[in-house]
Structures are given as structure tokens and as C-alpha cells.
Amino acid sequence: MSKPQPSEEALEIIDSDAVDSSERWELPSFDGARRKPGKVEDEAPKLPTAQEIAAIRDAAHQEGFEQGYQEGQQKAQQEYQQLAKAFDNLMSQMSTPFKQQEEALGDEIAELAMMASRHIIRRELQLEPQQIIAVIRESIKLLPSYRRQVMVQLHPDDAKIVREIFSINQQESNSWMIADDPSVTRGGCLITTDSSRVDATLEKRIAELFGHLFGDLRERSGEGESDDIA
Description:
Distance between the termini: 143 Å
Order of helices and strands: HHHHEHHEEEH
Helix content: 55-70%
Strand order of the largest sheet: 2-1-3-4
Radius of gyration: 64 Å
Structural class: alpha+beta
Oligomer: single chain
CATH architecture of the domain at 130-229: 2-Layer Sandwich
């Protein structure tokens, strides 16, 4: 079956002027160049490199270390000052009992030394009993130049020895009077006149000896303490 053809009348409907004034429509082409994108106003942020990250990390670590070191120094100094103050308070509290103990210990040492000295002197007197004569003579020298009769009080054992020596030297015996006195320790004597008295007992002489000795030691100790305080 053949396709019907338009009639001549239908073809005549389309005016030639209308054809001339019409616009040709064409199918757009899809093969043309793609549209260029516009300018990007905001660019993407640039990420730091590994070296920059490491440098930032090291700087932060160093800053934190220095800050921590300074804080540690300040804290240590404060703790040291607190400990020093507490130590000073403790020493001041302990100084008084220590001083008392030191004095008590010094007295005990002095007493022991005096006892040891008495034993030594007694031993020497047993070996050389005539030493009592030297004690008497030294004691008499302490009397005033003008004196009358001299009374010498001795332990009975020492008095016996002196009388035996006086029997040999009558001139010296005429200026001394010997009196037995059991209260006087061997090795010592009491010298008396009408106006004077000399205590030359063993206890007195030892006490004076150690008094000078310990007095010098205490003075030196006091000077050392004052130097430490200064």
C-alpha cells in the first residue's frame, strides 16, 4: 500500500512569505567544547609538611620543658626554705637540753679526773712519801712575809714522815708546828698562822688545777661558738 501524498491544496496553504520570515531551529550540538569553569574564589588550605609539624612539636615540647623546669625550681626552692626553717627551729629547741647535758657531762668528767688524780698522787706518795715536804714548803711561801708561829696540819701518816725529816733538819723544825689531822687527805696540808690560812689540801689543789683547765676549755668552746654564730 502506497503512502498518501499531500494534495496540492494543502501545499498551497503555506505561504511563501511565511516561510521566508520563519526562523530555522537547529538541534544543539553535543560535540562542542565543554564550558570552562569559573574562577574559584577560595583556594583550598595548604597542609603543613612533616618537617613543619616536627618543628612545631619540638617548639611546644621545649616551651613546656622550660616552663616545667622553672616551676620545678621555684617549688624546690620553697621546699628548701621550709626545711631550713624547720631545721633551725629544731636546733634552737635542742640547743638548751644539749647545753645542759654538756655541762652535766663536763662535771662528771671533772669528777672522774679528780678521782684519778687523787689515786695517782696517793700512789706517788707511797713511793716517795717525802714529797709532802715540798707541798708544805710551797704552801708556806704563800703566807705573808711577816708571820709568827706556823701550824701545819697533816694526815697522821704524813705527819710521822715530816717529824722524821725534821729530826734531821732541826733548824726548819723550829719554824713549824706539826699537828695530826685525820680529816686531811694524805698528800695535802692546812697551813695556819695567827692572821693567815692556806688550804693546800689535795682536794683543793686538784680542784684548782682542773678549774683552770676546764675554764680554758670552756672559754675556747665559747669563742668557737661565737665565731660560728658570726
